[in-house]
């Protein structure tokens, strides 16, 4: 989001990075990237990508960069704000660079103010403060991306006993429900060694599994870990990487080193597919797999399909029947599902959320992407969003699908009623005005409509009654498990 028109008192333009960019900003400010003072310049990025080192020979695994619009990269300083508009940091843009695709800021990053209110700020002291507060001796670090099940907890206890170490847990503040992972981590405290320290960190993926795990080792070391527990082999890590020992579940449902449990006495655990199926179906996790407090938070982190939020996105020409189908679907869901439904009809949204937008290609895109933002928020919080804009461009629909898909489920329905039928139904005379040239940017006549090739369902309201069309949408929702069948 570019808001450089609103300058601060120092006449510093403003930029709101995406959540991934904000995560990197927070880690820079917290001292979790100890080799870096800010975003990398072009020569530093090239060096890291080619050799895994900064130009001075310091090992560093991942380029930390910030992409911005071209005009912002030409300023000496840029203020960074979070999604709520609160100042977070200022970049002294000493070495901006362009790569043919985008512009990037490069230079030192400093706090915008003494008080920063990012996610779970009170639980996140700076890395030097955490490091100074750890007891002397070995510290086993772990950056979990999911709740700690009893097998993993047994591995941690076993390694701590071997190393004589305390534990430093750095649960990752990423994904749609980061707070749930933090709660799940604290829920496991009773099963962790005494003196365990928990510090949530906004450590995200940069798209390369091996380099991401190497970055996790650097971050863990910055917070004071002397060893990192990891499933992967991590080369050139700043601290020793310890592979978790193989554990087995015995006849008493305890997790012990596999060498201590005879093969004939071992019981099966849950593989990843079985775990996913249990969570999706809303089944309880067995006590030998996770304690009740951890299992409860696990279910909140990954709720059953019939409790997850979802979006149904109708697209099609004006007059295709989108609004009618959306209203009918809303009424049907009200009878068979307890989730709150938000209807984002194209005409209604134009009068409220998107008031002031015109019908240029740019404004059409803004209209659809605003709808997508609201739909994603409804979905994130476990509700149902039913959208019915024309949404003529594939790129905008893909943006909405990706945004919603990060937090819940998404269904694209192409209401493919033929243009001739849409014109016949036109009570407002819009098509006639478009044909006469009075409406120069009317979708289907004087502006393009890109028919979706990725629709989950295609309906033609000239061939099927509305009730039958809605029945098909409901059948697909039930088939996917998002809505429970009638009982």
TrEMBL record:
Region (Disordered) location: 248-272
Gene3D superfamilies assigned to the protein according to its UniProt record, in alphabetical order: P-loop containing nucleotide triphosphate hydrolases, Sulfate adenylyltransferase
UniProt pathway annotation: Sulfur metabolism; hydrogen sulfide biosynthesis; sulfite from sulfate: step 2/3
Domain ATP-sulfurylase PUA-like: 11-93
Compositional bias per record (Basic and acidic residues), positions renumbered to this chain: 248-257
Gene Ontology terms, MF aspect: adenylylsulfate kinase activity; ATP binding; sulfate adenylyltransferase (ATP) activity
Name the UniProt record assigns to this protein: Adenylyl-sulfate kinase
Taxonomic path: Bacteria, Bacillati, Actinomycetota, Actinomycetes, Pseudonocardiales
